[in-house]
Amino acid sequence: MVTSLKKEFSILIYEKEKLLNSILYYQLSNHNNFKVSVADNNLEMFEVLNKKKFDTYIINLNFLNEDLKKFYDFFETNINHNNIIGYYEHNFDNSFFAKDKIFLLKKPFRLTSLLDHLDNVKKNDTLDNTNKYLMNHIIFSPSKKIISNIQTGITEHLTEKENNLLIYFFNKRNIELLKRDLLTNIWGVSNEINTHTLETHIYRLKQKLLKLESNLSFSLVNKNGLYCMKYKD
Questions:
Q1: pLDDT tens-digit profile of 142-158?
Q2: How far is CA 78 from the centre of its chain?
Q3: What structural domains does the chain harbor?
Q4: Which of 14, 85, 88, 124 allows an S-S link to 128, with CB 3.0 to 4.6 Å?
């Protein structure tokens, strides 16, 4: 049976282990105006997903087993903009998540890390889904995951990670960021992916921006291990 508290920001938890389920439900229900619902098994989870859309989904991926691809396909076809937090203890088939559609945590993880990420998601949903002007004619639309040049009509589509990176850089423009800031807030890890992965995503994002405008008034820079969206004076 699905239970819920009347709050502002909706979250669905799928965790079969009753103690952890109770801890997550209790902690999240009493944190920052979250409305929390829980599902106890695969069938119930899919029944709930077909009835309602949530702002965030916290899913123990190890419990999905043969339904893992069904779960991923559901989000690919039914949710335009989603925030999935998937956590795991044992290895699983992650080939379905190649399109950067999920925020992964490995057990054991700190509850504070989860809460910090949820606060960031909530802030992004309320503040970051409005269109942003990177330049007078360059518009970033986080909810659609696109950047556009309104003068030329050129549009570039962003992956989930590219979209989240650009949101994060834009909100902290002209601020120098440590590698771990980006890994924690975008990937949910502090050291489990290497700098090459981060640099690859930033490079691809930069290339898409340059396709819109070769003479940008800002740049994404990495200097002495510090990352920044630097607006030119």
A1: 888 899 998 899 999 99
A2: 17
A3: 9-126 (3.40.50.2300), 130-231 (1.10.10.10)
A4: 124
